[in-house]
Design brief:
binds fe (iii) ion; 10-stranded antiparallel beta sheet; about 25% helix; 23 strands; iron ion binding; Rieske Iron-sulfur Protein; oxidoreductase; 4-stranded antiparallel beta sheet; binds FE2/S2 (inorganic) cluster; alpha+beta; Rieske domain-containing protein; about 25% strand
Length: about 450
């Protein structure tokens, strides 16, 4: 297949349904995308002590995120070197070694093979243990507590992969008052299966600003912090609403920009402690981040499969592919490390009524992806492409709002209400990954031929 301007034709704004339902394309995607890209594995706060581990996955493969005895963080393939058994079968915990349940090889938390039953008798001491440790990712990066990894030694370092999108990732991972990092995972990780291709949720979180009708009933019920809508929108109503995308990197997000010199009105009214906390943080954030404190985060996606919800409910989602027709969603909920207990309890309740398989908003989306995917699988149905032409050609570069220059390619949604620019950006990058033979073809910014600012 040819992807760029073949199955993915963004000049016309058409994308073939094959990329969602075809088995061969799915296999190629595992090779071309999931073994090469940087993937989110977990958060440092999940493994605070030496010996702590969290069983995660990268694409289809099970991996162990753990902290060794010296305190160093690792990500290993969760597969024994002897016959492949999962060496770690618990979701999370603390252990001195991972002992394989099949024949009993054991591996230290730094990955070394340390125990082999009948090493003397059966192997005659001739097995070179140093060669048979757990397989470790090629690169790992701790970004303000978020652990990212890639299997590809030739991938650019994570900060370069992220580029100027760090500005938007920070809206999710920095404390509400603007201190760097200082976030922790609240409770456990929610995991559930949805019957659709992983790209359905990925494109939706990239910036499907068009699907408000899906959430109409939730808006009417009013589950937001102040009792209206999904989220309270008072500060959003006074802001400029934008889409921002980075064509060379495939990351994209929505964002709101407050007018110069205006603090947002408080949205949290339930208890004075909660309201006071957010009022205090809001003022601090503006003091610390100066003009960048005017940015209010909105859902976005780091290519390929990590979604961000920076504004409440503040969470990270990963879309794990489970065959072309199924996705396993994992969702981490974040809260400021030192937030008062009342704030944490309040957010826990809000996150639950909003997100996850039982959350009111998430259910609306899953219903659509489930039926859209199923209806696209038919022999006749898959002959007809989807339409991604909304707003094509209306993206602008070098956008600024009241003195604040916004990096990347921007669409001003205050005027146009909605655009599929961010979705096109996601698929542009996806097609590039599918076509590219090596990372050299994917690091176009190094060649200086184009830039995210465009020409
Ligand atoms: Fe692990 Fe045999 S599969 S010890
Ligand atoms: Fe939605």
């Amino acid at each position: 297949y040819t992807y760029t301007n073949g199955l993915v034709n963004l000049e016309e704004g058409h994308i073939s349904r094959e990329i969602f339902v075809n088995e061969a394309i799915y296999q190629q995607e595992q090779e071309q995308v999931f073994t090469r890209a940087w993937l989110f594995v977990g958060h440092e706060s999940q493994i605070p002590q030496p010996g702590d581990y969290f069983n995660s996955c990268m694409g289809e493969e099970s991996v162990i995120l753990c902290r060794d005895r010296a305190g160093e963080i690792h990500v290993f393939l969760n597969s024994c070197r002897h016959r492949g058994m999962k060496v770690c079968r618990y979701d999370a915990g603390n252990t001195p070694v991972f002992t394989c349940p099949y024949h009993g090889w054991s591996f230290a938390t730094d990955g070394k093979l340390v125990g082999v039953p009948f090493f003397k008798e059966a192997y005659h001491e001739q097995l070179d243990k140093s060669q048979w440790g757990l397989i470790e990712v090629a690169q790992l990066y701790n970004y303000k507590g978020m652990i990212w990894a890639t299997w590809d030694p030739t991938a650019p370092p994570f900060p370069e992969y992220l580029g100027e999108f760090s500005l938007f990732l920070d809206l999710c991972i920095d404390a509400w008052d603007g201190r760097e990092g200082c976030t922790k995972v609240l409770g456990g990780v929610q995991k559930w299966l949805i019957p659709c291709n992983w790209k359905f949720p990925a494109e939706n979180f990239s910036g499907d600003s068009y699907h408000n009708i899906s959430h109409r009933s939730v808006d009417m019920v009013g589950i937001g912090p102040g009792g209206t809508g999904r989220r309270d929108r008072r500060e959003l109503n006074m802001s400029r609403r934008l889409h921002v995308s980075f064509p060379e990197r495939g990351h994209q997000t929505g964002v709101y920009v407050l007018p110069k010199d205006e603090l947002p009105p408080a949205s949290y009214q339930e208890s004075s402690i909660v309201a006071e906390y957010f009022r205090h943080c809001e003022a601090e954030r503006h003091r610390r981040k100066k003009e960048w404190g005017r940015l209010i985060g909105s859902p976005g996606e780091i290519f390929p499969s990590t979604a961000l919800l920076p504004r409440q409910p503040r969470s990270i989602a990963v879309w794990h592919p489970r065959g072309p027709h199924q996705t396993e969603v994992w969702r981490w909920y974040l809260v400021d490390q030192d937030a008062p207990q009342e704030v944490q309890d309040y957010l826990r309740a809000y996150y639950m009524r909003y997100s996850g398989p039982g959350g009111m908003t998430e259910q609306d989306d899953m219903e659509n992806w489930n039926y859209a995917h199923a209806a696209s699988r038919g022999t006749i149905a898959r002959r007809y492409p989807y339409n991604y032409a909304q707003g094509l050609g209306y993206e602008v570069r070098d956008f600024s709002y009241q003195g604040l220059p916004i990096p990347g390619v921007v669409t001003d949604l205050t005027e146009s209400k909605s655009s599929e620019d961010n979705l096109r950006n996601f698929y542009r990058r996806w097609a590039a990954f599918m076509d590219a033979k090596s990372w050299d073809e994917l690091t176009t910014w190094r060649q200086g031929a184009q830039s995210d600012k465009g020409s």
